[in-house]
Protein 1
Amino acid sequence: MEYRRTAVIKLDTPEGAGEHLRETVEQFKYCANTASEWCWHGRHQIPEESGCQPETRGVSGDDDGYHVTSKAKAECGLYDQLREETELTANLVQKGIRQAVEAVKSGVERLKNDKETSRPTFTADTAIYDKRSATFHRDYVSLSTVDGRIECDYILPDDSENPPTKYITDEDYEFRRATLHRRDGDWFLHASMLKEDDDTDTTTGHRTVLGVDIGVNQLVVASTGRFWSADEFNHWKREYEKRRGDLQQCGTRAAHAAIAGIERKADGRFEIFLHRVANEIVTEAVEHDCSHIVFEDLTDIRENVPEASWHHLWAFRRLYEYVEYKAEEHGVEAVQVDPRNTSKRCSTCGFTHDDNRHGEDFECQKCGYQNHADYNASKNIGLQYLRRRQNADDGGAPVDVRLNRGTLNVSGEYNPPASSEA
Ligand SMILES: [Zn+2]
């Protein structure tokens, strides 16, 4: 059994090191953006004298005959150039190229499904490290930079019961890889850690996910059966729109200033509300021992929730961002899955039909399962993630969706809670 956790560690950078770290992430970004551009505007023919394998040289190696989605081909076409143009080590150059290829791959997927997309760009101050470009210790890390290795101590809270200290001080957790981040002038390491043990009980431990459905009436419904109503949010939104409308009719400069004031106040209120909901969702996941919180993919949320206004769309995205970073602090990962059919599919028998759903009511036309439509969807969203990960070759894939009592496995079969947690 494997436990995967992300530890967010603040770094104490030695005098003068900040500059080298900044230059390192700048050059990393340069590699990723150069590679993204190269891969996006594909059809490259790489000369024979490059020494690359013939199958990676020709345009036929491109995934859709145009974009480059092969890491081997991208490295073959770019590695030498980027080594020359940057002061990064081989490993960091490769990581930059690979990050771009992964992003281009998802872009190409979107194009294949006739969805809007554009060339991926990298703007965040980050760089990806593995054990060749970094040496992870229990109290400091040694990072490869444009100016050789730099050692940074960890700044850890004393609280050994909570992340990140809990995982870093636990020798059973091994560092796998990490992303270096710069935030508000400080440096952080987001370290992926892994623990393996012989615990075979799959109904406890971190092998379950929390599925969540988002919507305009019930803002969030979790697979544990917990509901977060959008009433408060919708009420404020109506109130705000009404006052805005009244003021707009005045058209005076004072009215415009008043509108701006209301907007600021409304945004603040919405944000406080969303922070609270995000905290509660993360607590729900932590209390139920979930390794992941699964949302539907928000990229196409406009199509999937046609009744959503721009306020809702804004709220959904903001909520996901809050959940994502709050979850990370607890070693829980927020992920998104393709929401196709999650509202029409029966979470019990898998039967998928338009007639299964009528507004907020779900009734399976095949097996008769009845429940709130959003609750049914939340279970499907969790299941969707299990199915996606089932074929992943990492052994650490979660195997169950957490319900109020018990779990659902990937085939939708219900397991009652183990006696130890009853
Ligand atoms: Zn059914």
Note: The two ends are 22 Å apart (CA to CA).
Protein 2
Amino acid sequence: MAGNAGVAQGTNPTTAVVVAKGTVTVVAFPLNYWEYSGLQLYFKSKKDNSIDNTASKKYKQAATAPHDYVVQLQKDLIALNYLPAKDDYRDGYFGPETQRAVARFQRHAARPYRMPQPDIGTGECFAGGETGVCDFATAQEIRKWISKNWTLPLARFPLRAISVVGVVTGGKLREDAAAAWGEIVTLAQAQGATLEGPYGDTTRVLQRMTKSGTSRYSFHYCGRAVDINQALGGGNGQRYFIVKEASGQQMYWRIYCKTANSSGAHIKALTKGQVKYYSFFNGKDIDIPAGNYVDLTTLIESSGKFERIKAQSGWEKDYNKTEWWHFQYIVAKQATFLDEMELIGYSEQQLRIAGWSNDAMLDHPPG
Ligand SMILES: [Zn+2]
């Protein structure tokens, strides 16, 4: 429908006050939703939700919200890319889709990311909580975004090639993770260790995997994960010695990288057998050769930006489940898979086409 300027006041029973026969005066509600300090636009059930004038006429249900408040809100959510630009989404009926859009907006507004950039300070972020209810504070925030031409942040951290001078790497990560990983690779090189590629996996093509045992929400999709070079973990020229490190029922790994250097923050001199490393080929612990080693796991994790992960259950029988090579970027992990993917530039529409076809998948935690 076209604009709301022409909506006749008094047609909405929730706003009309009859003062004399044939005379109707509206005093209760301002014309625009963002001007009403008592605002509560919401969905609880089909019998208890916000229905404005437009939806009241269209669906022949009693209005429960003033004027065209819900249409106005929906148009704003469409302008901000939180609802698709279709008539179904600007019908004045506050349903589950509008609720989800409001919740996503509230969650995103609580972050410092703003597109177009620049980001804002954390103290300036929306603090109203993720309720899915459009209250006055949420309405003010929405109008702030409209006035500043901010929209749903897409590609705030686009994928970038991992690039380190003089080192073969390969692969892509989101740009902040690629930079952070590059610094770690450089640090390892400086101690005579290596994190050179080619990497087993970094980011993945946008296609939801259906094979069992592979995460449909992996941080690899999100441009946050790197699988270091497995070839360095055995054979001739072995550099990595991978040590079991149990934590309760979980198995983690610690990677010692052989180095010719004798001093450095992460270098340890080990005598033969001082540490047992695990041979995946033989399925047993073996004495580590005497020499100098960089504790690569500590070097990586002391950046505060990447973490190792535990082995998947059944790793003893399936090398692919050991995950000793997998490290992932931990800075500002997002609440949902969709939130992660939007930050590297994939839209909700693209994800739906690629196989994450419903809200439960899109709103699943990443990782
Ligand atoms: Zn991995």
Note: The two ends are 42 Å apart (CA to CA).
